[in-house]
Structures are given as structure tokens and as C-alpha cells.
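Morning F.,

Quick status update on the modeling queue. The single chain you submitted on Monday has been processed. Sequence for confirmation:
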Amino acid sequence: MPAQGGIFVLSLDFELLWGVRDKRTIADYGANILGVRRAIPAMLDLFEQRAVACTWATVGFLFCADKDELTASFPSLRPHYRDQRLSPYDDLAELGRDEESDPYRYGLSLLKQIQARPRQEIGTHTFSHFYCLEEGGDVDAFRADLDAVQKVAARRGVRLKSIVFPRNQISAAHLAVCRQMGMTAFRGNETVWFHAARRDSEQTLPMRAFRLADSYLPLAGAQTHRPELCEGLVNIASSRFLRPIAGPGILERQRLRRITAAMETAARRGEVFHLWWHPHNFGVNTESNVAFLSAVLDEFARLQQRYGMRSLTMADVADETLNGARGSTHQ
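C-alpha cells below.
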């Protein structure tokens, strides 16, 4: 359990084009994807300057240096989605040879930059950006997917302990597989109806509207949490999605107040505030987005000084929670 003062957790869904390939194209979103190559070094510099930890939930494809390594790493069992547009395995004809020829789909050099910085955890976003709640995203294919991602991560010296589910599609059966495969932490969803785990087809316009409005107005409350065990893993639930700069200054100041007020609630209650986003959200307007993030970290520094708030990775929180649970059983 968090000590008095609370815990500040950051997680990023590092996926490049693999995370949006069924919704966006290089023509309409390529600038955001290429901009990740500016955004990640800028964020890493900021994290190191502020001594802030972060979990980078990385799609397994990005661990591979070239097309040969990637295709050789494919799992023997793949998902057979009813909606075939969801399968990245059908994109091989468009896939370039390596990172130099296809910077939209390869990112090993970026992964190595993250590994080189202090207090940065490499977690998993599954091997193939796997959709657990879509038809065809069955447990056996998911197990094969996780086995594949563990193998490619091990080749890069990474032991995966934390998982973030693509599109936040979480189920108890898939969590049980994660535990069997040795993972300890996952990012759960915010505990409000418009953030509940659903298939993509069930994400209605009103749900999206409520999520957008909640970025500026306290519709869902602070959404601070205490870590809890679920299917043998520690749920380090989301508190807020960090939307990119999108509106006039008055709206951005309100969005910042919404975040910092929840952070203070976590610090005062001794709970977790978990903020997440994608590197490609900062791919355009990078300087403005990093400046906004810097303001969030200014608030963390204030709460750290006033309440003793700590910055931890997802794996750190899981380790503390599991060790505390083990200790209590021996008392």
C-alpha cells in the first residue's frame, strides 16, 4: 500500500503506427508518428532532470531491428479477429526493411534511448497490439502473443513485469494468463462507466464526449486509487489520460488544474495518481506539450516537498504491494 504522501505513476503506450493502423494512415497521421522521434528524447531529458520514473508499455514489434527479425519472431498462433482490419499481420506488404526505410513501424533505436536513462521501466503493450475483447482475441492466441513478446524483450535484455492492454481491453481470463507468464502489474481502467473496458464497436459517441469533458471538468472525480490485487496481479489503475494540447489557453489552464487537483488529492490521501498517454500524442506541437508536462512535474515537485509524494514505475508499485501483502501474511 502507498505510504502517506502518495505515489505518482506515469505510463506511456509506445506503439508508433501499430497502435493506430486500423484508424489512421501515414497520410493523415504520419507527422505525429515521425514526431515521436523528437518527443521521446525531450520527455526523457525532462524525466531525468526531474528524477521522475516512467513505465514505457512497448509493442513487441518495436523490439525488432528489421523485417527478418520481426517475421521470425511471430507467434505460432495468431488472433483471428472477426474484423480483419484489426490484424497487423496483414500489413507485411507495406512493411519496410528496417527503421531507416520505415520509421513509422520500427523503433528499436528509440527503445535503446529509453533503456539508457535512469528510472525508466520497459513494460509491454503486447507483441502485436493484441485486442483482448474483440472477437478472435482468445486466450490461447493471447498466451502465444505474450510468449513472443517475452522472447523478443529478453533478446534486448528486458524482463517484462508490467502490461498495459491495447485500447484498455481488459478481462479476467487474459489477466490470469499474464500472471501465469510472470507479470506482476497492469494498468486498470478508471472506475467510471465511460471508461469501462469495451469492444471498439461499443465505444459510443456519448462515452467519448464524457471522456473529453472529464479532462476539463470533474465528472469522474479525482480517480486516485490504492493498488489492489486482481487475478494475482497488482492493478495500478489509471487516473487520467494526458490529452495533447488542443484548445485555447483558458482551456489548457483548466485541464492543468483538473490534473493537479487530483494529484494533490492522491498526495493527501496517500493514494496513487496514474497519468498516461502515447508518445505520438506529443508528435506535433511537441514543445507546447512538453511544456505542459513540465508544469505537471512542477506540481509533483511541490507535492513531493510538502507531502513526501514519490515517483515510481508500475513495477515498483507492484513490488511494494506484493511485498506488503506477503509481510502481512507472516504476521
